[in-house]
């Protein structure tokens, strides 16, 4: 009997925009950025008044009222009424989440948004049919129905074209539009049920994440970043070197960026996007392949931030996306009916013999494990993956924790 898992699925499509539509997207993103920075400035200013005793959430609620009732009514800010109200509402929601993450120690203090980094904004449908006040609205009345084809209608915006068609009828309430380099994307979430496979070829597998090789499985399968990643990084370095003396603009010196400087920024963003896409494509295919063939997946509970403090390993650790791999394996549990188990981060998987369990010291440069007790010889990463498969786990991951 199949078990149905209800979860959220994200769909992301690239928008096919003309010049007018691109300007509209930039305007919405700029509006959200302005409101986000406005709220950040005011909440920092409110801390100077010791008589005000309120949480960050209540302060932001008050700032939102000041923005809507005072700031937006001024003649010089009449341009704000050209954009959907959900844009500035989502800006305050994002700012509130940023302060919550800072208070919990998950991330640093919120910083101001910059147009040089990827622009984004969120719109959502608020209207619905509510038969009883305080009760949920009627089904689908507060959602946007998305038809098959290459067009999508966003709340508060006109109908836009897509570069890739949607092959089914669906609905969603919230839509996030983002920019990567000079390309614009729309993303939205769906409630769906997926029937995961109940038969996996392998019952249990250990996955060792490494610096030299991206991942080694206990069944002998190895995954690594493609050579195209290094080629793209080399091209990025050459692009930066050739433009090292270009005058790119300076606000402090009141030097405006030239047209060639803006072209350079676009090429630079495209190259960074290409590198990120190669990493994302590799990790997605790898985690999907592992999730399809094994029911129980065991990985180490790595201290990624601690590993980055070693300057000799920092670049390789960032390049191999250790935490991203764990995140993907975790959320794909519901998709493929798997169970991800974490092994203690202090377990010496690389120093333990997979045959006799003898523990011996090894240097990072030693790529072959040669047991001094039973004379077992095996590749270092394969030996570690076998140990991860057989050792008892610390916990089964039902969510993500910061590491």
* Relative strand content: 15-25%
Radius of gyration: 25 Å
On the 0 to 100 scale, the average pLDDT is: 84
Query: In which range does the helix fraction lie?
Result: 25-40%
Quick recap:
The chain has helices at residues 19-46, 56-69, 85-103, 227-242, 259-293, 304-308, 314-320, 322-331, 333-336, 380-390, and strands spanning 5-16, 120-124, 144-146, 149-153, 159-166, 170-172, 174-180, 183-194, 202-209, 215-217, 222-223, 294-300, 339-343, 368-370, 377-379, 395-396.
Layout of strands and helices, then pairs:
Elements: E1 5-16, H1 19-46, H2 56-69, H3 85-103, E2 120-124, E3 144-146, E4 149-153, E5 159-166, E6 170-172, E7 174-180, E8 183-194, E9 202-209, E10 215-217, E11 222-223, H4 227-242, H5 259-293, E12 294-300, H6 304-308, H7 314-320, H8 322-331, H9 333-336, E13 339-343, E14 368-370, E15 377-379, H10 380-390, E16 395-396
Helix pairs in contact: 1-2, 1-3, 2-3, 4-5, 5-8
Family: In the C-terminal section; belongs to the transposase 35 family.
Keywords: DNA recombination, DNA-binding, Transposition
Protein name: Putative transposase
